[in-house]
Write a structure and sequence with these properties.
85 residues; alpha/beta; 3-stranded parallel sheet; 3 helices; 14% strand; disordered C terminus; RNaseH_sf; RNaseH-like_sf; Integrase; nucleic acid binding
Length: 85
C-alpha cells in the first residue's frame, strides 16, 4: 500500500560545490518559501548523516514542525578477498 499523502516521507541530500551566497542561509529559505509553502511540512525526512542534517538547530526545527528525522546507515563497502578464483 502506498503513501496516503504524496508528502508523507521525503528523502533529502545536499548538492555540494555550488557558489555560496553572502548569507549562506538560502537553503533554509528555499525549503520554507518554496517547498513547505506549496506542499506543507513532511511527516518524516530520511537523510544521510551529514552534519547539516544532524545539527542541533535542524533537530530542534524538525521537532517544532513535528517532522520525524531518520538517518540512513553508513556506507560499508564489501571487503573483497585478494585471491581470485
Amino acid at each position: 500500500m502506498g503513501s496516503e499523502w504524496k508528502w508523507d516521507c521525503v528523502t533529502m541530500d545536499f548538492v555540494t560545490g555550488l557558489p555560496l551566497t553572502p548569507s549562506k542561509k538560502d537553503v533554509v529559505w528555499v525549503y520554507v518559501s518554496k517547498i513547505v509553502r506549496l506542499h506543507g511540512v513532511p511527516l518524516s525526512i530520511i537523510s544521510d548523516r551529514d552534519p547539516r542534517f544532524t545539527s542541533r538547530f535542524l533537530k530542534k526545527l524538525q521537532d517544532a514542525l513535528g517532522t520525524k528525522l531518520s538517518f540512513s546507515t553508513a556506507f560499508h563497502p564489501k571487503l573483497t578477498d585478494s585471491r581470485r578464483d
